[in-house]
Write a structure and sequence with these properties.
Blueprint: H1 11-77, H2 82-95, H3 97-129, E1 137-139, H4 141-151, H5 153-156, E2 160-165, E3 173-175, H6 177-199, E4 207-216, E5 219-226, H7 256-267, E6 271-277, E7 281-289, H8 294-297
Parallel strand pairs: 2-4
Antiparallel strand pairs: 1-3, 4-5, 5-7, 6-7
Helix pairs in contact: 1-2, 1-3, 3-4, 4-6, 6-7
Length: about 300
């Protein structure tokens, strides 16, 4: 009787795997870049328009304030001249105070809202693009999902509304944050494309993507449900195969769901599965353990 012990240094392999996942994430960011630029440009444009409006409004208001100062000075030494009062009436008419009182607060509110939208997009991009740790770290997956929704907004906003049903009582989940977000991104983009197959490019109304989280025993379950075309029965057994895709050339590489399966099952020791109905939609489920085992911490 005896036994053989073998060992191998997997440092280089793990480093390469990490670099590959980061490359996939940056590739996704590159593919989303035009949409993200549009998302930033829209609020930037109405902030610029509102700023121009405020600039135009300020000149007659400043003249009015200057005249008020002059009138106050004259009142201190005697009656106000008819000429000065005439100027005052003229400037009040030019300033259109009733209009200004109603529109300036709106312009300020819209500008603040636009700046907040830009800030949210920038923060989401920063969080999404960050390489992250090569080891599992306990994260708020609700926030990670919301960040990904923000980054992918231009992919879904024309064809679907996105609803979230997050369990706010979830504990932090041990996770490779960057890889998890990449999976969520792939599933959201797939859902949007499946819905586009039903509603066109928004010309026939919008579908819905619903993303929910909940705790289930010692794991956390994420569900991404769409009202798209569903997955045909004849290909349901192949969708996690590498390079398998039914999308037109340029629309998909067949790697998204394969990487999702590898990330959730192999890297997180979790589960991924789906339920689908032709013409009604598909729901993808992800289940991640709340406890880190020796196997998952080693990335096997």
């Amino acid at each position: 009787m005896g036994f053989i012990v073998t060992g191998a240094d997997v440092t280089e392999r793990k480093t390469l795997e990490g670099q590959l996942m980061q490359a996939h994430k940056l590739e996704a960011v590159g593919q989303l870049a035009a949409g993200i630029a549009h998302e930033i440009n829209t609020p930037t444009q109405f902030v610029a328009n509102n700023t121009t409006f405020l600039k135009d409004c300020f000149k007659p208001v400043l003249e009015l304030l200057t005249l008020c100062t002059s009138i106050r000075a004259q009142m201190a030494s005697g009656p106000v001249s008819a000429e000065l009062l005439g100027q005052f009436d003229q400037v009040v008419e030019q300033a259109d105070l009733a209009f200004v009182r109603g529109e300036i607060p709106k312009a300020i509110e819209q500008s603040l809202d636009g700046l907040q939208r830009i800030a949210n997009i920038v923060i989401a991009m920063k969080e999404f693009s960050h390489p992250g740790s090569s080891e599992k770290v306990a994260i708020d997956i609700n926030r990670a999902i919301q960040t990904t929704i923000t980054v992918a907004r231009n992919e879904w906003k024309y064809v679907a509304d996105v609803d979230t049903e997050f369990d706010d009582a979830l504990p932090p989940v041990p996770c490779l944050a960057g890889e998890f977000q990449q999976v969520i991104l792939n599933l959201i983009v797939n859902a949007a494309q499946a819905i586009a197959g039903v509603v066109g490019e928004g010309s026939q109304g919008k579908g819905k993507i619903t993303i929910s989280t909940r705790r289930k025993d010692n794991s956390v379950e994420v569900a991404i449900r769409d009202t798209g075309t569903g997955i045909p029965q004849q290909i349901q057994g192949r969708i996690f195969e590498p390079f398998f895709t039914t999308k037109p050339v340029g629309k998909g590489t067949g790697q998204g769901l394969s990487l999702a399966h590898s990330t959730i099952v192999k890297r997180h020791n979790g589960q991924i599965w789906f339920e689908t109905e032709a013409g009604r939609g598909t729901t993808f489920f992800l289940r991640l353990p709340l406890l880190v085992t020796a196997a998952t911490s080693a990335g096997t």
